[in-house]
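Example 5.3 — Protein artichoke-like isoform X1
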Amino acid sequence: MYSVTICKVLMILCVLVSSSHAQEADAVNATATCDFSIQDSADLTLNCSRRNINEVPETWPEQVNSIDKDGHVLITFFNNTISNLSQLPSVPGKRVAISFKSNEIVDIEDDAFSNIEGLVYLDLSNNYIAGDVLRSEIFQGRYIDGTYASIGLETLNLGHNDIHSLDRYLFQHTPHLTRLYLNNNPIEILDHVTILALSSATNLEVLDLAKTDIDSIPLDAFRGLTKLQQIDLSDNRFVTVPESLSLVGESLQYLTFNNNPIVELNDDSFVGLTNLIELEVGENDYLDEVKRSTFSPLVNLRVLHLCHNKNLRYISHNAFRGLKDKWTLKEVYLDDNNLSELSTDLMPWNKLEILGMTGNSWLCNCDLADIVTKQEAGTKFQAGEIPYCAAPMRFSGAYITNITITYCPSLDTTVAPQRGFTLTDLKAKHLIWSILGVAAIAAIGMLLGLFVNAAKSFYNKRIKGQPIRYINLHADTRFA
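Solution (predicted structure tokens):
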């Protein structure tokens, strides 16, 4: 009986051992079947996408190790089933990019990337990574002379995960980080430790916070980020443009602010953003008004996207107040709003290079005709993107560039010179009419005086002069 039991145990052990060997073999075979692309021993691409790989390989295929030390390497494990990201084997090459996008990663081991000194790009998006999984030990380099070295990571994509907060020391070993993508994470609130983490990435140039459900950014969130050039705040819950952006106003060049529940843009919206080059404000369903001096702080703006705001009906003619004499805008896109009219002096239309106005219900009146023809806005439309008239009925459906309104008045802007009044300007008819006027006023005054005297005399004689009669009730028999 004992012999039978021992045999069964040995069989089970054999199955387990063979199973583990089979898994290792599968991992090796999986990477062995990856696609290679090598160019001049300087550029290598290892494509391991969609190979049903469930763990990181312990060694790379020989082709990876043959790359030149100054070469560029791209390794992608896109769309596999890796859940635990263990330490990766060494990769030669001066600049290495690795993607684990769209796996099932829930955990990352310490020193996961310490063997890859040239790692500059890492994509961990579309996984199940929580904030507590992310810690500085993941990104630390080799342990040398009692300290951990830094890695050369420049771009880190953490989008589409389950991150609520960041560890304050997360970027301790990534001093070269310039691009950080946190989009599509349920952050909701930029808490104190997350702000400390962000502010420690002092070389950050690009920050993506789109679809993170935040509605405010604390004033000190960007303190120290003096190199930040681009930020995306789209698809959040902002009701105003955050004031904290002014802290990075000297460096910020690109701002994307789409799909937020803002109602208006005003003179406080972009205060301090003096070096902004491109602004995109679109798909904001509640935005209905752009007020006076909204864009006045943007003295270096080159491109404005104000599109797809379905309720935007009004843009103040002073929205660019103070900028018209120092005009920098080259491209203005006003497509797919709810606009019907624009002021002729909204902007110097002839100084634009590209103008987009399609998808609005334009009223083809004299102002629009002036903008399109006299101010040459009609020459700024791109091919196939000429807007139509919606009203009046006789112009409906016609290109606005084909409309000529002959009855539009031409205002004379010249001013006649003024001169002083002299007695020589008086003529005989002027004197006659003046005398007749004075005589008429005197006659009317006399008649009014006579009427007043007659009324007073009538009052004194007939009303005021009647005596008061007293009746003796005892003597008068009518009351007996």
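Remark. The longest strand covers residues 35-39.
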